[in-house]
Amino acid sequence: MNQQQQARLYLGIDLGGTNIKAGVVSDSGLPLGFASVPTEAQIGPMHGVQQMVRAAELALLKAGVSFPQITAAGLASPGTMDIPAGMLLEPTNLPGWDQFPVRDQVAKALGLPTILQNDANAAAYGEYWAGQAKHAQSLAFYTLGTGLGGGLIIDDHIIEGRHSHGGELGHVILEMHNGRYCNTGQYGTAEAYVSATALLRRFTEQLEGGAVTSVRNRLLAGQTLTPLMIAEEAEHGDQVSLELIMEMAQCLGATITSCVHVIDPDMVLLGGAMTFGRDTTMVGREFMQRVRQEFRTRTFPTLAEKITIDWASLGGDAGFIGAAGCARLAVQKGRLSAG
Length: 339
Hints:
The protein contains 11 helices and 12 strands. It is α/β, with parallel strands linked by helices. The protein folds into 2 domains: 3-126 and 316-332, Nucleotidyltransferase, domain 5, CATH 3.30.420; 134-313, 2-Layer Sandwich (Nucleotidyltransferase, domain 5), CATH 3.30.420. Helix 5 (196-208) packs antiparallel against helix 8 and helix 7 (227-235) packs across helix 8. The radius of gyration is 20 Å and the shape is globular.
């Protein structure tokens, strides 16, 4: 690597339905400064572009650099998209942004060559490039949140697919008959069993069925049912809460098995907002143990022995770090001209 490459800086933007996070990242994957601003998506896509520029300006200010020092930008976005065209199709998290050429509008506003990537793919690449999987050759990444996202990286290549829908790990089918409803309109997908939405639906069913749970006391006190509340009560010994979380872990273990049997990765990582405190809590530790146990009972002995399943390490920074990494990768492969 020459001195010019070592000095290269990249801008990563993680566009969400609620907030936008932008950061300046070094050529080695080190965040130098980042900022977050509200998306205000309801105002419209062009306002969203202005908010992305604002987040970028704040990130550059914190990093102590200016736009001419940035080589390229990467934009990570939720929703269905046409990645080569840089187009958002029908992003459910961004109502009113349908058929919006987000990449070109952001590139024009920033004055930087810009690449678009699915947000889960970007987070996966962040972990692969600069996180928990940086010494792996291949990775299957799951992001647990409102839904179940995923990304696949093999030999520094992001599996986008021919129609920009590759790596949709949350939409493999777990149940063919009488499957649970998924917000995509499908039935029986992994996301219908492994997501915050799924956990809340399952818990509501238990409450309506008269289940005895300490969560009911908090609801009677006027609190709102959330995955965090369920996890807290599970940690304090509530059996209904713990059983539903473990049921979800079991479904995730089966989902991972199907993915592993297709690509045989070095590593599987779990990230996102719903990780139950990871290794710092009893629930987080038992969740991971149940995922691994289910995987090992369903897979081949060699894969059970050699494939690592662990927590991701970049947390909420994975999106913008990965987006910057995607821009860097595109420059290296000649798909994006350096600014």
